[in-house]
């Protein structure tokens, strides 16, 4: 189920963040329990718990004692801001580098973006 | 149940199977026990289960010595690689015997596990295939719910779908009834994600004992131009090195800090994770 490239708990955290960004998970909505995640992903519950702990530390989730984990109301905005900050270095720069490597003139790339804008 | 082992030695004549092993396993976790053939895994589990008496050192389970201590051994279950070894009579008889032995026996759960593995109560244990015998052992091990349950390669002879069924059943039952589980295995890629904690032994000695994530975070693959890889890995513990033309790949053991990661990035080196199986292979001496 997991590629071997990054620790499982990081992949779980990324999945939850993606669900928050796409609003599959909304603010103050409860997320599935550690136990449910462990059974679904076929992993030790401690590994799943680690993913949740990371998200709590980052302020993406919050804990309600004895009830479970919930999405922070401002998680989506915070994640969007964070992604915006790294968008050019993470997405645009590699695209430009790739275009150069394979010989696509940047003007063609810009034209494509203009087309998509319309 | 907490397992405390201190300076444990086990000798068979002049062969030392366990050589001053010391470790503590926290209770209510799934521990993976990894080691090559003849590394001492079965010897260790046999001592923990009081099947054998140690030559020296101490073993405490739940704070109490285990050898010839009925109060402790009732709570300790070891399922060996041959599966169910009581081969007199039928599967039903084996379950009856297990129920008599195990105070926490769950008969309903045992029946559902029998169904899961396609075992019938009237089957003669002696006539079972290797895989069925392993499955029978797994049923006894899981339904016994012993506070310390140990599986020693208990899936031997099981096909991939049965192993998957065992994996899922073990995880589900552990989630519902947390207890201490030790599992020895050679199928590291298959069973690795189940382990919270990993113990690696080699030639009767402890090589590593860490929680899985920490162990995995110690391994890094460094890939890039050979000269840069060499410069970067000088002074680091390199477990393995391979070369493909101008490109070199080195497996480094030991966590890299932020400064080192930045240095690698600046040198155009790619850093990637190393799987548990790869780490295991190189921590236990490669293809020796």
From TrEMBL, chain A:
Q: Any keyword Nuclease?
A: no
Q: Provide this UniProt record's keywords sorted from A to Z.
A: DNA-binding, Transcription, Transcription regulation
Q: Name one GO molecular function term.
A: DNA-binding transcription factor activity
SUPFAM superfamilies per UniProt = Winged helix' DNA-binding domain
Q: Give the domain of life.
A: Bacteria
Signal peptide start-end? none
Q: What is this protein called?
A: GntR family transcriptional regulator
Q: Which organism is it from?
A: Nonomuraea cavernae
TrEMBL record, chain B:
UniProt cross-references to SUPFAM superfamilies, sorted A to Z: P-loop containing nucleoside triphosphate hydrolases (SSF52540)
Q: Where is the ABC transporter domain?
A: 3-228
- Record GO terms (molecular function): ATP binding; ATP hydrolysis activity
Query: What is the native source organism of this protein?
Result: Nonomuraea cavernae
- UniProt keywords, alphabetically: ATP-binding, Nucleotide-binding, Transport
| Domain of life assignment | Bacteria
Q: What name does the UniProt record give this protein? A: ABC transporter
InterPro entries from the xrefs?
ABC_transporter-like_ATP-bd (IPR003439), ABC_transporter-like_CS (IPR017871), ABC_Transporter_VariousFunc (IPR051782), P-loop_NTPase (IPR027417)
